[in-house]
Amino acid sequence: MALGHTQSRQTKDHRDKMKVLFLTLFLAVVCAAQDEEAEQSLSELSGQWRTVYIGSTNPKKIQENGPFRTYFRKLVFDDEKGTVDFYFYVKRNGKWKDVHVTGTKLDGGTFAVEYEGQNEFKVISASKTHLVAHNVNVDDDGNRTELTGLFVKLNVEEEGLEKFRQLTEQKGIEEKNVVNFIENEDHPHSG
Length: 191
Fold this sequence. Notes:
Layout: H1 2-44, E1 47-48, E2 50-56, E3 70-78, E4 83-92, E5 95-105, E6 110-114, E7 118-126, E8 130-138, E9 144-152, H2 158-170, E10 178-180
Antiparallel strand pairs: 1-3, 2-9, 2-10, 3-4, 4-5, 5-6, 6-7, 7-8, 8-9
């Protein structure tokens, strides 16, 4: 009887090990699929976006006629090519200029973009209706500027606004150096 009990126990132990192996493999597949989904999620953000707020450690960059007082129109993420295309307006000498620049994906989810110097752009938080981003600009004179932005598709969600405020504070950008683009009457999206 003891021999039969030992074989039964060994069979049960073997089944338990197989279950653990199966669950481990299953979890590995699920995790890999989630990583793939996370990578693909940026392409889902492609579409029409509007600038709500931009914060900057250098207020001159976002003042009237400043190079980063940009009014976003569209973002197009291409996961296969590892690129992002930015379409926006910027005012130069009192006239609106339509701008298109392309960024190339780097490690860590950032994109290298050439615009008014070298930039590293990163999406910090996003949903179907808001996008909070961080950009580091090093201009041609070697000056480094930290910028934060809140962009929306529809109305501003409180969650998106709060994440933008937190990021802006973390980056040391004072509230007086934040521009609200929605309340500004003179922009290409108005009227």
